[in-house]
Amino acid sequence: MKDLSYYLNLDYPFIVKPLPQEEGGGYVVEYPDLPNCIGTGDTIQEAISMAMDARKCWIEASLEEGLPVPEPSIQRDPLAEYSGRFPLRMPKSLHKMILENAKKEGVSANQYLIHLISLSIGKTAKG
After folding, report:
1. Whole-angstrom Cα distance, residue 109 to residue 116?
2. For 43-79, what is each residue's pLDDT tens digit?
3. Is residue 87 part of a domain?
4. Residue 81: what are its φ and ψ, rounded to 5°?
5. How many domains does the chain have?
6. Are residue 51 and residue 103 in the same domain, yes or no?
């Protein structure tokens, strides 16, 4: 069974909105996946902190009452752990050839290598 710590370790998306001055100003933070679960504060940080406390109470109360606790509707980007950077060491002679060929093509060495890798992966994928 999923317990409080399970749900508290999930990344629930939240929305931060400024409150109009006629409503006292400050900020409100709401969790779209947790109905009526909000936090308010004079600063954004204070509102987020209050919302995090409210989220814990909301989940705790739901579990105690045997009510379902929804999981976050927005899942993490499956590519988030990849930076797009790939440091590469090579012989100086190969580096020279890459730079010369990239210059002939009128592109950067990075663009040239991406092109070559894409072509190679495409051929491999086709079998």
Report:
1. 11
2. 999 999 999 999 999 999 999 999 999 999 876 666 7
3. no
4. -80, -5
5. 2
6. no
